[in-house]
Specification:
This protein is α+β, with helices and mostly antiparallel strands. The chain has 7 helices and 7 strands.
């Protein structure tokens, strides 16, 4: 993805700063690499795939592109908000809760809650979240980009960490969140990778 992002070439009429196109081109490059990997060992890797979340961030705005369920959170004025779409059954189940078709407690135990509806697997992704324009940022904002392993923590647990440690360096916030995930000792814990950007 990073190689694809940096090697992106614009036409003479297209500004180099056209980030949406650069992010999409980089995503396509990453997907092609996944396809090549699968083809190199189809017997073992036929079902392989990955989620992807990438940000291009300045002090005033962030662009992102995502496929899958890796979350991008914004901490602003002591409130946590997910910015990107969740391409998993968890989001479908949450809509059913909102419509009164199932109870909130059923989502946490539903056997298909972590099934992905879109991933990079060499095929055209079913869903891609890439806003058409930049999302404006404010001084004091914290962006938290993570793999889905962070979802072992509840939104409230993440909020508690950010409320208590928002003045700490980004690297320390990451360490505290990873320690909280590890402390849960979830059997078959998903990979938890976290990046924090403080504005």
């Amino acid at each position: 993805f990073i190689d694809g992002f940096h090697s992106y070439r614009t036409s003479e009429n297209e500004p180099r700063s056209c980030l949406k196109e650069r992010l999409k081109s980089a995503l396509d490059s990453a997907n092609k690499s996944v396809d090549e990997l699968i083809r190199s060992d189809e017997a073992t890797l036929l079902e392989a795939g990955t989620t992807l979340l990438a940000l291009a961030c300045s002090r005033s705005a962030v662009h992102w592109i995502s496929v899958g369920d890796s979350p991008l959170f914004l901490w602003r004025k002591k409130k946590l908000e997910r910015l990107n779409e969740d391409h998993s059954m968890r989001a479908v189940l949450a809509r059913k809760v909102a419509e009164g078709q199932m109870s909130p407690g059923d989502v946490d135990t539903h056997p298909e809650r972590n099934v992905l509806l879109s991933a990079l697997n060499g095929l055209e992704p079913e869903k891609i979240d890439a806003p058409t324009g930049p999302f404006p940022l404010e001084s004091g904002d914290i962006l938290l980009a993570a793999s889905d392993g962070i979802l072992s923590l509840t939104a409230r647990q993440i909020e508690e960490v950010l409320k208590k440690y928002s003045k700490k360096p980004a690297s320390e916030i990451v360490r505290i969140l990873l320690d909280k995930v590890a402390a849960l000792k979830v059997v078959k814990q998903d990979n938890a990778t976290i990046a924090v950007v403080k504005i």
